[in-house]
Fold this protein.
Amino acid sequence: MLNKRFEEHIKDIVGEDQFVKLRKTKGFRLAMKQFDETIKTAFMSPEEDYYVNFPMANLADDKIHGISSNCYNLKG
């Protein structure tokens, strides 16, 4: 359930068009694996920042939403 919510959150941030392309990439699968195995289990402190990498995904940088160089800064 939490994974699905995270997926929806990414979709809201990057937009429908980018998300459709992103979802087909190996970078998306790796990011979801990183979220599931590392971030989700450590997500306890609201002060912590977590970084989700989307390698080779070609996401547009969006400093407002915390996306830079195919990396998403997920605030605790």
About this structure: The mean pLDDT is 89. The first strand starts at residue 49 and ends at 53. The chain has three helices and three strands. The chain has one domain: 2-75.
